[in-house]
Amino acid sequence: MKKTAIIVACILALITLVSCQDKGYDAKTEEAQKLYNDGKILPAMRLLDEAIEKNDFKYEAYAMRGYFYWQLGNFECAVSDYKNAIKRGGKYYNYPLGKLFIDIGRPLDAVEYLNDYIKYDKKNPQVYVLLANIYQQSGDTCMANYVRDEGYEATGDERLKKPAGTD
Fold first, then answer.
1. Taking CA 160 as the corner, what is the angle to CA 157 and CA 164, rounded to the nearest 5 degrees?
2. What is the mean pLDDT of the segment spanning 123-152?
3. Cβ-count burial of 56 within 10 angstroms (0-12 exposed, 13-18 middle, 19+ buried)?
4. What is the pLDDT of residue 27?
5. Are 69 and 100 in contact (CB under 8 A)?
6. Are 116 and 136 in contact (CB under 8 A)?
7. Of residues 11 and 49, which shows the higher confidence score?
8. N or C, which end of the chain has less CB nearby within 10 Å?
9. pLDDT at position 165
10. pLDDT in tens, 33-63
11. Positive or negative: CA dihedral 136, 141, 142, 146
12. Do 147 and 132 meet the contact criterion of CB atoms below 8 Å apart?
């Protein structure tokens, strides 16, 4: 989870730096990232609240705040913010939302978001591994094998090879 958290934080920082156009919004999200990096999560969240109030239609602040809520253990707010980010065009946030659902013990809720993420990034083997595991654990071996096949074909990742005798 720590590795995923670092990757998500880097993605958030990159997207925030590259895609914001409004200087007030941009400055607030950049400063929020800096505050978070300095361990000042609550002041960072206040800035994100202001950024969202200033520009409700942009997804970056929602995604960043969702991640911060996740780190604070406020999972329902995290889910809500990730959904808002996705609704506003942050299609790549389907993956962290799926991971969040898995982490909070709701893997079946993750399926929709992980499948949506694959539409945008077919080369991420971890998404296929997560989906196959969810299907396998829920008793749907056929879907687990299908996801493994699709994932192996798309990525060549050895973790996606089906175990012997599962054809």
1. 130
2. 97
3. exposed
4. 86
5. no
6. no
7. 49
8. C
9. 53
10. 999 999 999 999 999 999 999 887 889 999 9
11. positive
12. yes
DSSP, residue by residue, the chain: -HHHHHHHHHHHHHHHHHH---HHHHHHHHHHHHHHHTT-HHHHHHHHHHHHHH-TT-SHHHHHHHHHHHHHT-HHHHHHHHHHHHHTT-GGGHHHHHHHHHHTT-HHHHHHHHHHHHHH-TT-HHHHHHHHHHHHHTT-HHHHHHHHHHHHHHH--GGGSPPTT--
How many other β-carbons are positioned within 10 Å of the β-carbon of residue 104? 16
pTM here is 0.80
pLDDT one-digit tens code per residue, 54-104: 887 889 999 999 999 999 999 999 999 999 999 999 999 999 999 999 999
Tokens encoding 133: 């595991």
CA geometry: angle at 31 spanning 30 and 37, to 5°? 95
| Residue that is written with structure tokens 């929709």 in the block | 112
Token pair 């970056």 is at which residue? 60
- The C-alpha atoms of residue 158 and residue 151 are separated, in whole angstroms, by 10
